[in-house]
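During the second half of the funding period, the structural biology subgroup turned its attention to how the target accommodates small molecules. The most pressing case was flavin-adenine dinucleotide, which had performed well in the primary screen but for which no bound structure existed. We therefore specified the complex as follows and requested a full 3D prediction, including the ligand pose.
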Amino acid sequence: MSDTNNFSLFNPSSEHKALREMILDFVKKELEPQALEFDKKEEFNLELFRKLGQLGLLGLLIKEEDLGGSNMDLTAMIISHEELSSSDPGFCLAYLAHSVLCGYNIYRNANEDQKKKFLPGLSSGEKIGAMAMSEPDCGTDALAMKTHAIKKDSHYILNGRKMWITNGCIDNNKQACDYVLVYAKTGEKISSFIVEKSFKGFSVGQKIGDKLGMRASNTAELVFENCEVPKSHLIGEEGDSLIHMMQNLEVERLALAGMSLGIAKRCLEIMNKYSLERQSFKKSIRSFGQIQKYLAKSYAEYQSIRSYIYNTARQMKLEPSKNHRLDCDAVKLLAGELGKVIADRAIQVLGGYGYVGEYVVERLWRDAKLLEIGGGTNEALEKNITKELENL
Ligand SMILES: Cc1cc2nc3c(=O)[nH]c(=O)nc-3n(C[C@H](O)[C@H](O)[C@H](O)COP(=O)(O)OP(=O)(O)OC[C@H]3O[C@@H](n4cnc5c(N)ncnc54)[C@H](O)[C@@H]3O)c2cc1C
């Protein structure tokens, strides 16, 4: 029962609190110890990823138990992204692509047979999922996509290339993930399909290496060459998926904002602790006004974006039929910028130590940059927000 006097925006129920504690325990014991190693190796820790299934995190937003769901809400989604990302944003990005971009998209838009076929494996972690929208020649301008599907007998024939696909491959041998939710043109309209890794004509073009950050997640180019997709793998009706894409982008942006929040939180903790211990000119560096400015501004900005993100998740729950595009765009824009700025300040407070991997903040700073690009660039969000504001 909720007690309004004790209401917490960040842990609104005992289930949310327990979820956060469980993830913090996982982070401390399993995620943090491997984070720097997998960043350096530029590898995806598949074995550890599958454990998220045992913890109930992969089907977090799915209601039904028989589909592997944990029946939680968007606040829980923020909690999981915030806490995982506070330790290992790359690993968390793989989690987002699998659970939100692929699994939750299927859950919201697929038919019952498709849900029964694909979701239990995705929720348990036995199968790995991805979502493919971006292409070599277009990202922001998603509607310019060239990938297309043509109906032929009992199949669609899919042709095109998809670029930057998180989880597109799961190892260095370019082994494809199990299921990719692919957006493609059918005539002038957008449809989406679930492509299985065994489908003829589907392959991984390349594992994209040498990334600045998010190195613990795999990013791949995917190739579809006369790929035969059974009609049973079309999601919804043909031409229906622009709305699926737009709705999923809202949730994606909220989750990405949660990731930036996790980065900001960790960087604030690290710079705060460091400045308590570090001396310069026989004084604590905390006594210097410039260091105080870094700490104070980071705290104030972290708290304000934290409230905005959790409040947006709460509003989405209270008004599920309303379109929440404006605030999902706005939280991602603001959190993306603040995550990077606060990570940058943390490096500055740590001086030379901030510049090396062992002290964590350099990795978080590199990871934070992606959150100004992926899932909608800052510039695209600014345009969207301005347009949405016309309707206020
Ligand atoms: C590590 C990583 C993981 C990713 N994971 C996925 C994934 O799982 N699935 C997926 O589908 N995609 C994924 N992406 C792709 C990502 O969403 C795109 O990179 C992003 O949407 C930007 O598209 P683009 O790279 O083609 O840049 P472009 O769209 O070409 O943009 C280039 C520049 O032009 C600006 N610009 C473009 N149009 C406008 C405009 N109208 N007004 C003002 N400025 C504009 C942009 O803001 C940007 O600064 C991933 C990318 C990376 C790097």
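Two results from this model are relevant to the next phase. Residues 97, 130-134, 138-140, 164-166, 211, 214, 219, 370, 373-375, 377, 379-380, 383 surround flavin-adenine dinucleotide (CB under 6 Å). The first strand starts at residue 129 and ends at 132.
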